[in-house]
Amino acid sequence: MKKVRILCFLLVFLLIGSLVFANNFPFKPGSEPKGFRGIKWGANISTLSGMEYLETEYTKEGQVKWYLRQGDGLKIGDAEVESIEYGFWEGKLLAVTITTKGLHNFMKVKNAVFAKFGVGHKTKPPKEIYAWLGFESNIILKYDKNTKTGKLYMISKSMRIQMKKPKKQHVYSAMVASPLGFTIGKATVNEVRALLRSKKVPYDEYKSSVSHGPGIYTKTYMGLPADNIDSLGIKGLENIDFIFDAEGILIYVEMRLSIIFTTRKIIFDHLSKKYHLVKKKLNLIGDIIYAEFKADNATIIAGYFHDKDGTDNAWYYVEYMHKRYIKMKTAAERAEAEREKKRIKKERRQF
Question: 35 with 92: CB under 8 angstroms?
Answer without folding.
Answer: no
